[in-house]
Amino acid sequence: MPHTPETDDEDLNLEPPPEPPVHYAEQALLGALLLEPEQLAQTEGLLPEHFRSPAHRAVYAAMRTLTPPEREVHRTEPVWINAVLTRAVEEAPGVSAAYLHTCIGACPRPQHATSYARMIRSDHARRTLREHAIRLEQAATNTTLADPESAALRQADALARFVDELTRQTASHPGSLPRTPLPPDPPRDRTEDALEEERLFLATATDRADGVKELPLRLEDFALPLHGHLYQCLSALTRRGEDIDPIAVLWEAQHRRLLTSGVGPDDVLTLLSQPAGSPEHWAEQILRRALLYGARRAATRIRAFAEDTANSPHQLITGARRALADLTAQHTRCWHRAPPGPNTTAEPAHSPTVKPRQHELTALHASRGNRR
Predict the structure, then answer these.
(1) Which residue, 40, 58, 249, 305, could crosslink 91 as a Cys pair with Cβ 3.0–4.6 Å?
(2) DSSP readout, 220-236?
């Protein structure tokens, strides 16, 4: 459909997006400090980088480098506003005397400067928490890293340190949960490599079940729920001290109603019939993928909390701590024997001599491909 001048005018929205509330809090604070320079002493904990607007940041930074004039001089001469303007335009050339007067007009009560400063710090904390969550998500999904687990854990530690610092800076308040509904969990890694590792683990653990009891795996660690349920079958047989082989696992799966129209006995027996390597090796791979998934889920939740401006700092702290607690518990469970250090990776709990040989894996892939 050709555009007419009328439709062009209707479709083209030239109105800028509305400024968020923190913009007006920043204007009000700067107006208060321009009107009453002595209020600067009440904002010592506020730093220029806490401001969202670069222009406001430059004006506030200029104020912090200047000595406020005597009250009588300030009342009769514009020395303060002129000095602030001269210093601010060095960093933000767009700042003008007219805009400083706009900030003065935007300040309802100069004596409320401390409250305006608290609003600015609160919004800065929310934005910073969101940035930490984004970095955690990026670390957990970066497939180019040689050691993505350690990278994700380092980012999680940095996020936790920020939350601790925010807690120290925030007045004591009873913890309350964020008002934000939990976002959907991110999709699991169900690539063929991930699923093949789980299948090989189940087959090898069935063939060598003596060490299954010692593995810290759980249902939620598996990318495919069926694989997690089959692992539960193996664990139950082990706990009861029963004989374990593919038929025994199939029988247990039947009792747990795992056999459906899409998963028949032949499917289970085929899955369990080709072991390779050691159960510990494949369990290590599953745990690593589960840890990265846990980091992604924590990052997704914390980011959702931080992007909801209705949440107070106390709610952000509580929500972030809960999300990180789940990740910490998973890390502790996965590496309860030998947690990796800041620059090291936990060594797989298996002997190199029992790793599957490449020709074995190639044959397994080929045989599975033929069955498909």
Answers:
(1) 58
(2) GGSSSHHHHHHHHHHHH
Residues 129, 96 share a domain = no
pLDDT, tens digit (0-9, with 9 covering 90-100), for 89-133 = 999 999 999 999 999 999 999 999 999 999 999 999 999 999 999
A 10 A CB-CB count for 142 gives: 12
For residue range 4-17, what is the model confidence (pLDDT) as tens digits?
555 555 556 667 78
Dihedral-angle region of residue 240 (phi above 0 means left; psi in -120 to 50 means alpha; beta otherwise): alpha
Per-residue DSSP letter, 139: H
Q: Do residues 136 and 88 both lie within one domain?
A: no
Give the integer Cα–Cα distance in Å for 4 and 251. 72
Q: Residue 256 has what DSSP assignment?
A: T
CA distance 129 to 145: 24
The total domain count for the chain is 2
Residue pLDDT, tens place only, 124-142: 999 999 999 999 999 999 9
DSSP codes, 78-95? THHHHHHHHHHTTT-TT-
